[in-house]
Hints:
single chain, eight-stranded antiparallel β-sheet, five-stranded antiparallel β-sheet, 13 strands
Amino acid sequence: MNLARVEQIAKAVLYEGYMLYPYRPSSVKNRQRFNFGVLYPEAYCDAQEGNDACRTRTECLVRGDRGSAIEERMRFLHLQIRQRSDSALPEGWQEAVERDVALPECSLGDLCERQMAHAFAFPAQNRGEGEFSREAVEGVVEVSAVGVSEDLFKIHLQVRNTTPLEDSSVDRDAALMHSLVSTHTVLGIKDGEFISLLEPPQSLEELAASCRNVGAWPVLVGDPGERDTLLASPIILYDYPQIAPESAGDLFDGTEIDEILSLRIMTLTDQEKQEMRLSDDRARQILERTESMPAEQFMKLHGVVRGLRHSAEDGHE
């Protein structure tokens, strides 16, 4: 599995909705953040009796043999509170640290014989005044496989937040500090290939439809036609998603329209820009990149024709 090949897409998924235009903490849309791929502690979900999730479920199809090797990586954001006295930041402003959990490589045959459970934990830290504090998080990734035929297997993967919670009646912001945010997994196969669940071969349509996915949307990633890497995303994507080469950088919105957002950033007042600059390093980078963008780069954002085809009205398919 070549992670460098899927890094751009995985990064976009990781920070989907991290901070939205106008990129100010005082903005209403940025006061309740991190709505995608959140796995809360099990105790919190049980107490809420609502739709909050503590686990994701991914099922996919892979063609290979019992010796084909599977590798998995689970990624999420671990929240922290910056201990700042800046008036630009609301009290309890949450930032994020990237976490990456790599599972040991194993064969399809091994996964058919026994489930692999990989526990992980990241400790609490408190750096004191002027720094940050974050709570401990714990979880487990469970992977197994079932042989459908001699060369076809169904993989089942589950991520659970097992973080102990002393008080399950805490509010959402407090629960987020113990949560896995923007949770997604990347799977790779050696000597085999994943089957598209969006456009499976006709002979596998019924089997593909039987794959049950909860809180995850498995799609093929890499160059079109490659089938050795799968991304289980918390947001809906299509096979082989791409970041437009004209995009100058992340704007934290997978459906972003770079030109409009960039132009809107330029219209922010000096006070709003200062608030954006102080709020978060990633937001500051967006501002600095946009303000220094040359005119020719703006022109590239205006629109690109990727291809042309005849319309049905012209009598062509």
